[in-house]
Amino acid sequence: MKHIALFASGSGSNAEKIADYFADSTDVKVSLILSNNPKAGVIDRARRLHIPVLLFDRTTFYSTNQITELLLNQGIDLIVLAGFMWLMPADLVRAFPNKIVNIHPALLPKFGGKGMYGHFVHEAVAAAGETESGITIHYVNEHYDEGQIIFQASCPVTQSDTPDDIARHVQALEHIHYPRVVAEVLATLTTQES
Ligand code: GAR
């Protein structure tokens, strides 16, 4: 059995899609959802999905290695960031080499980096007059949005699209692709180990 830990700061629609995808799996289990935001929608979703939640604050995350230790002790194989808005600390990245993936709501390397998250991304894409946007699923390193790209998918953007319209199209792509790509990354881990 492979164990996933999901990190989310917001609504958690991607976290829920991933949990649904593996709900009946005998090989993969979403064991834990972690969040920095006690008001995050993902917490209600986790409760409904019967997945344990761990809330943590900035000091615990950046000034102790409690989260890293817990994930190692729980035998977590893959960390999946699903709308998690904080930078992963160096000790956590080192403890899970190529075992942390993130989804970014644009076609990296465009519209990435510090401050480029959630709705800010779609506002920037609209303001720049882009003709397409999309999603990037990538490995996580110690810098925002810079790890190796695993998968991208794009959608057209028209002159009349508002940031909300772009967000809707991008989120649809996320929900279609993220669970499947997570399954593929897990399959790669299994192959490496056997
Ligand atoms: C998603 O669109 C995800 O790509 C984005 O936050 C949203 C979370 O939605 N992540 C980032 O911007 C990370 N830099 P959700 O809570 O409904 O899954």
Largest beta-sheet characterization: 7 strands, mixed
Hetero compounds: glycinamide ribonucleotide
Low-confidence stretches: none
Our measurement of the CA-to-CA distance between the termini, rounded to an integer number of angstroms, reads: 14 Å
What would you call the shape?
Answer: globular
Mean pLDDT: 96
Topology order in helix (H) and strand (E) letters: EHEHEHHEHEHEEH
Site (Raises pKa of active site His): 145
Domain Formyl transferase N-terminal: 3-182
GO molecular function: phosphoribosylglycinamide formyltransferase activity
Pathway: Purine metabolism; IMP biosynthesis via de novo pathway; N(2)-formyl-N(1)-(5-phospho-D-ribosyl)glycinamide from N(1)-(5-phospho-D-ribosyl)glycinamide (10-formyl THF route): step 1/1
Could you explain how this protein is built, in words?
The chain has 194 residues and is of the alpha/beta class. The protein has a single domain (2-193), classed as Formyl transferase, N-terminal domain (Rossmann fold, 3-Layer(aba) Sandwich). 41% of the residues lie in helices and 22% in strands. It has seven helices and seven strands. Strands 3-2-1-4-5-6-7 form a seven-stranded mixed sheet, with helices on one face. Strand 4 (78-81), helix 5 and strand 5 form a beta-alpha-beta unit. Helix 6 (118-127) crosses helix 7. The longest helix is centred in the last third of the chain and has 31 residues, at 163-193. It is globular, with a radius of gyration of 16 Å. It starts with a strand and ends with a helix. The model has no long low-confidence stretch (mean pLDDT 96). Glycinamide ribonucleotide binds at residues 8, 10-14, 82-83, 103-105, 117-118, 121, 171, 174.
